[in-house]
Amino acid sequence: MPAPVSDKVRICIDRGGTFTDVIALSDTKGDHLVKLLSVDPDNYADAPTEGVRRVLEWFTGEKIPRSQPIDTSRIDFLRMGTTVATNALLERKGERCALLITKGHADALEIAFQTRPHLFQFAVKKPDVLYSKVVEVDERVLPVWQELVEEGKTATEQGERLIKTSSGVVIRELQPVDIAQVRKDLESLYAEGYRSLAIVFAHSYLFPEHEQEVAHVARDMGFDNVSVSSSIEAKIGFIARGQSATADAYLTPEVKRYLNGFAKGFQNKLQGGDCRVSFMQSDGALADFTKFSGLRAILSGPAGGVVGFARTSYDPLEGSPVVGFDMGGTSTDVSRYHGEFEHVFETTTAGITIQVPQLDINTVAAGGGSILQYKNQIFCVGPESAGAHPGPACYRKGGPLTVTDANLFLGRLHVDSFPKIFGPSEDLPLDLDVVTDKFNALTREINAENGSSLTPAEVACGFINVADSSMARPIRALTEQRGFRASAHNLSCFGGAGGQHATAIAALLGMHHVIVHKYSSILSAYGMALADVAVDVSEPYVCEFSTAALAEIKGRFGGLQERALGQLVGQGVANDSVHYECYLSLQYQGSDTTLMIARPDDGNFAAAFVREHKREFAFVLDAPIVTAAVRVRATAKSAVASGASDSPYMEELQQLTESSTIVPAPKPFATNSTYFEELGKYADIPLYRLQDLSPGMTVAGPAIILDNTQTIVLHPQNTARILKSHVFIDVGLGPRKAIDLTSVDPIQLSIFSHRFMGIAEQMCRALQKTAVSVAIKERLDFSCALFDANGELVANAPNVPAHLGSMQYAVMYQAERRKDQLRSGDLLVSNVPEAGGGHLPDITVIQPVFGDDGKTIVFWVAARGHHTDIGGLGGNSHHPDQTERFQEGVSFESTFIIRDGLFNEKEIVDTFMKAGDYPGCKATKRLDHNLSDLKAQCSACALGTSQLHALFDEYGKDVVTFYMGAIRANAEACTRAALKPYAGRSYAATDYFDDGTVVKLKIDIEHDGSAVFDFTGTGPEVLSNFNAPPAITRSGILYCLRTMSGTEIPMNAGVLAPLKIVIPEGTVLSASKDAAVSQGNGEVAQRVADIIFTAFNVMSGSHGSMNGTHLMYKKYTWAETTCGGASAGPTWHGQSAVHTNMTNTRIGDLELLESRFPAILREFSIRRGTGGAGRFRGGDGIRRVYEALVPMEASHDGQRRVIAPHGSEGGLDGERGASYLYKQTSDAKYRIVKLKPAAQVSMRPGEQLIVHTAGAGGWGAPESTESTAIEAAAPAIQVFKRDAKAPPPYTRANGSVSQFNQASAECD
Predict the structure, then answer these.
(1) From edge to edge, which strands make up the β-sheet containing 895-899?
(2) Ordered alpha helix ranges (H), 193-325
(3) Would you call 174 exposed, middle or buried from its count of C-beta atoms within 10 A (0-12, 13-18, 19+)?
(4) Which residues, listed in sequence order, are joined to residue 99 by a DSSP beta bridge?
């Protein structure tokens, strides 16, 4: 039954950064579009209000003065997406707010994950925190191991409360909230003018009562906004949830301020009346404007676009999934839809982790304004953008060449169809002349440097091809990495610049169809008309999944449905219009990878989980399935969407195909000289106006279709069919143009560089998602890479710089060792230094990639991951007392892990167990984790292999291998260019390890860019585990050269080709076969990087250590590396509390640590003032305090405990690090003892391991000794004193902690 005709108008608005798009939908007057500047203070105060005014003038035919509040009685609904929250976050212009956080963790969100955003930069700069002041609250809860509860341990020696939470997890309340002190702190904050708070307490996702107690006091006291982390999203992750809460406190007042200002432009401030006012949220659902929060507004505009393409471009009758391609001025967003929206639950925006449901939107920094540059013989597009000012060169403001300029130069933009709004008087057209001059000059530069004979058109087209390749990269990640064929999708194009690139990108990806909706240029606004009102509610629930658990799960679904319905009814939704989707967050026991599984038709969640895991990760585990969370999404369908056709385009296409009606040929309104690579020349092609084309018409390429806001480019092989609401384009995939292999084309060099690196990155993402261990899954201690037939590095996607280049030697070893022995599908495992390993915990899985004949190896792929427990002396692979290799755990020289398609489990297990056969040694305690992580590494290699075969299919093996060699040669040329400015002199430096072992380096650089790095004079091997194989030194050199170059040198074997590296045998840098190396892998790498930077005098000394900590109890091990101070330099202060040089692994999250190991993280703070003073001060080190809950072993190894990080150019040294034990005495008191730089200790319950890491040296003489000098005496060591309310010793803790694993973890 058709919907009744309405006499009211429906208005949808997308307020972007530059333009505001408005679409009005009327049953009686049709549709109406308005486009206006988002900021135009000379004409109106607020763009959306002005847009509504103009719409109502059109709809009513009446003049509405700008000074008059707008009457909403003629508006059915008003929907809007806005960038207010996004801009406030990007520009750091939100509300001044304060953070209340668990005692001991005031600096937790400032330290965050301890990683630096960019690996290869001298001046480390982490994102600023959002709060202005932090207050510690003395409260604490802790998850209790489930085994203790099951054994009836419900009472404690000191009477703390044990509470079974709604999630099924039992927690211990160690310290109730001191409300009296909280009230005093809040009164002080209020007096200082704070009105917005974020409250973040440890484990509040399980036990929110402490947060709610404080929030209640704050609201009663008059704070306008109180953001409670457990209310925002009850999920594990102290840092992620904390950053989300501070973002909400920072953004929500700003959003409310905007909403209040917006409401003032309407009668009664939008209160009362029948006009429903809603805002688009990041999850693609609408929310009443009174319920709209800053945290859920960050993707407000892009979410509208996703809803728009999903509703208009996905056709159930045709069935193909759709990729949305939204190309703007500075970036491009891609997303995927196949009948239901795909959500993610943790993302990062502007350096802040956002832990709320959001549509899965991937962004690449390539848009119309992306700057074109030729660097290191490679065509580069972005990530820098010309922005709106100065904008592209053609805007007549002196801007650089951009993607827009390339399209203009190639004739893909029609100058006469562009508004004449440029130049000093804003009355001139786009400037083609200056673009032509710039491309001519750039072409001369490229040909002179590269010896090529490219034309300016070929150069411009080359940049377009590189941009297209860059934009195709996230689409491959969104599809192929997750087990979907990209070629099976349609491409839906929207956004102002998308139509110029869509068909070329579709051809790159093997897609057959491109769909362009008539409102594609304002699809974000139109999508809001099609959006639903929805709420998403969830709660953690931890149990082993079984048939018996379904009754409880069903009850929880019912409770969440009631909660969701209540929220919808509060927004004016009728009860009977609500649809519920029920989900379970499931994972394998012991794994951190959760999948959000929608309730299947047959109700079998377990089978659905296994299928999804198999599809996405290519394997399943023999382990119980456990629930992590229960989720319900309640939706009230949009009336506009409900009234739309179930078949947006397919039914119409079929009718046109079957129709005998003769459709007239389209008539162009003009021609334009346009260059296409397929033609190899400029040609006059027809131009059509979209509004002149009738449904059924066909437009054959080459051609251009224009409307008022966009340009659709049809390549020669494309054919467009005009429909009522769409342009449906058959891409017409044909044979790819042959690539000349007689010389290197810099354009193809750039494209293949993208493709190779893209494959390595996809391998990394697959490994992280499928791994079980915290080391790989959370701390990101792994790397993946591609290698040529000889095993030389082609492309490396490192998370850990120490892996840079070192994997090459592992692959080269296997290539020689297993020559003529391997078959397709074989995978090898190796870790010993003699076979190219670093240290034994870094286990490498290696796979040969065969050509079409199945006999010739043409590539290799490898995945290296850190395995925390591989056995060793006392069960610790990093034991400080190790002196021999056999004490470091399992050894694989060259072992088949998969042979003839079979997992070689017996030999792998036997080898792991053999590590316990040596004196004083034990085998791994977590063999299940080892095997699972090895399978994940195999899966990553399998993905890399399949992607390389796809590349062969696309280009041919000869082309791929040719450009593999070309990329390596290019890297050598880049290294030479980077070293030439230093030519003609020698550089030298000397440094020391804390045991006095000397490291010496002399560097001689020739004028051709070749160099000798000579470590002669370095001390001999040491009788400890601080030795390293030569591959580690080579990795350090590669890292330093890449960082010093300041450019995008490809990370492959060519980087080291112009170097002669002298590493004398028998030194600490060249470990012999039996030498222990477990700590040398990291610490030697750090010292090599420090000494190279010192030799070139580019910055001061960093904290210079991995600072590794291992906690061990029975079969449980927790391991992590810890940050310190980063170097200062000639123009920058050192960053505090960050990893430097050769590592960039994450720190273990407090809640993960305490859920997986019987210890309390009492403190994690920055040691203020420990960076060396100077004109530019060194970064500060940190303090991290672990308290034992059970009798356990703990070890810590670090450097810069004796030799301080040096200052440079008059800057002072950084303060040294140290480790301490807060140790119980025989009379039950405690004393503090200092530990050796590398020490292992036995700890009793209540004892603490205290880790201090070093600050970095300063740069330049301090301007004021009195104000900047570091105190000579070491600061007092602050310790959390135990009292009557401290946790009691655990007498028993048998069994597994895996039931607590990630009670509500991220879902991908």
Answers:
(1) 793-798, 782-788, 857-866, 842-850, 827-830, 895-899, 902-903
(2) 209-221, 229-232, 238-263, 300-313
(3) middle
(4) 134, 198
- What are the tens digits of pLDDT across the range 403-439? 999 999 999 999 988 878 788 887 889 999 999 999 9
Which secondary-structure segment (H or E) carries 32? strand 30-37
Q: Which of 200, 379, 234, 1274 is nearest to 744 (CA)?
A: 379
Judging by beta carbons within 10 Å of its beta carbon (0-12, 13-18, 19+), is residue 974 exposed, middle or buried? buried
Radius of gyration of the chain (CA): 31
* Token duo for residue 767: 């490994």
**Chain centroid offset of residue 134 CA:** 27
Residues 1144 and 800 sit within 8 Å (Cβ to Cβ):
yes
457 by DSSP, 3-state: which? Answer: helix
Peptide bond into 383 cis (omega under 30): yes
Hunting for tokens 């950084």 — which residue is that?
Answer: 1214
Mean pLDDT of 689-713: 91
Q: At 1165, phi and psi to the nearest 5?
A: -140, 165
Determine the Cα–Cα distance for residues 979 and 46; give it in Å rounded to an integer.
Answer: 54
Nearest-CA neighbor of 536 among 215, 235, 170, 212? 235
**Residues ≥6 apart with Cβ < 8 Å to 129:** 109, 110, 246
CB 1140 within 8 A of CB 1102: yes
Rounded CA-CA distance 242/231 in Å is 12
SS (H, E, C) 458-470: HHHHHHHHHHHHH
Angle between helices 84-91 and 238-263 (to 10 degrees): 120
Q: Which two tokens stand for residue 543?
A: 């149990």
Q: CA quadruple 651, 337, 476, 326: dihedral positive or negative?
A: positive
CA 802, CA 186: separation in Å to the nearest integer?
46
The pTM (predicted TM-score) of the whole model is: 0.84
* Distances, alpha carbon 1165 to alpha carbons 109, 184, 227, 1174, 1182, in Å: 10, 24, 23, 23, 6
pLDDT digits (tens, 9 = 90+) for 257-282: 888 888 889 988 888 778 888 898 88
* Secondary element (H or E) of residue 141: strand 140-143
Which three-class secondary structure state does DSSP give residue 692?
helix
Is the pLDDT at 97 greater than 80, yes or no?
A: yes
Whether the per-residue pLDDT at 621 is higher than 80: the answer is no
Q: Cβ(741)–Cβ(447) under 8 Å?
A: no
Q: Cα separation of 1115 and 318, whole Å?
A: 53
Could you write out the DSSP letters of every residue in 437-449? HHHHHHHHHHHHH
- Phi then psi dihedrals of residue 784, to 5 deg: -135, 150
CA 788 to chain centre: 28
CA dihedral 19, 20, 23, 24 (to 10 degrees): -140
| Among 646, 709, 636, 648, CA closest to 77 | 636
Give residue 925's Cα distance to chain centre: 32
The two structure tokens encoding residue 845: 């899985």
Distance CA 381, CA 685 (A): 27
CA–CA gap between residue 70 and residue 109 (Å, rounded): 44
- Structure tokens that stand for 360 in this block: 């899965």
DSSP 1074: T
CA 955/CA 395 separation, integer angstroms = 38
